[in-house]
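Proteins fold reproducibly. Take a tokenised chain:

. . .
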Amino acid sequence: MAYIYAILMASVGPTLTQNSTTPTDSLIVRLMSPKPPKAVLFDLDDTLFDHRRSARGAVEAIRRIEPALASASDEEVNQANREILEEIHLRVLSGEIDVDQAREERMFRLLERFGGSATQADAVRLAFHYRQAYQGIREVVPGAHALLAELRHRNYRLAVVTNNMTAEQEEKMRTLRLSSLVDELVVSEAIGVSKPDAKIFRVALEWLGVRPEQTVMVGDSWSSDIVGAVGVGIPAVWYNPLRHEVPDTTLPLAGQIHALEPTTEIADTIQQALEP
């Protein structure tokens, strides 16, 4: 910095007094001032964590032991599982039912969808096998670890903002070795509202010490992640691995990615959302 100061003073010349306020003084202050913080918010399930892969593996496991499910196609059962899960998950988030009740009810409804029936004991057994298989094959989306590390290297503050139960997401973050790569984990259960509610995004901003315009949201859910973030003024990058059509072309979208790698290319896309 002394070297820079000497060069700047030489360029100004000897006509200014020591007590003068000069353009050089202003420039030096700007050079020495820390850059404003910037941050990236990530969704967890189906953005950093490959939930879809684990769910498919869990469905395959219970199809092997349940004749009613084995008689349907793999895609039919997976589609039904996704639909039932989305509906029941909302009831869990609202506090209407707990996680164990949700898992058992999902098994009841999945069997009913394909002409089967189950006792309470059957539902508990299937829910256990589903959960065991789901947890046994959990993996991050390819490139997730490298991307988070690269963004940290670029001095971004990082947070995961997710709709789920706190204990579930904390355990998932630890198992997937994501906890040490982010600064904050913001979970809907702890905050009291779910995405796209503005409150959960504002809490994330507060915890990271940033403003909306200093932040970008990356997530796969158009309604929860993209609409929610844009609603509070946060630029949003849509993670769209299945290459769906943009649901609303009037919504300002800062970018779109279909994978989390190559690392540098994806990190550049996220950076450009903040520094166009």
About this structure: Residues 38-50+140-274 form a domain with the Rossmann fold fold (CATH 3.40.50.1000). The first strand starts at residue 38 and ends at 42. Residues 1-21, 26-33 have pLDDT under 50 and may be disordered. The chain has two domains: 38-50+140-274, 52-136.
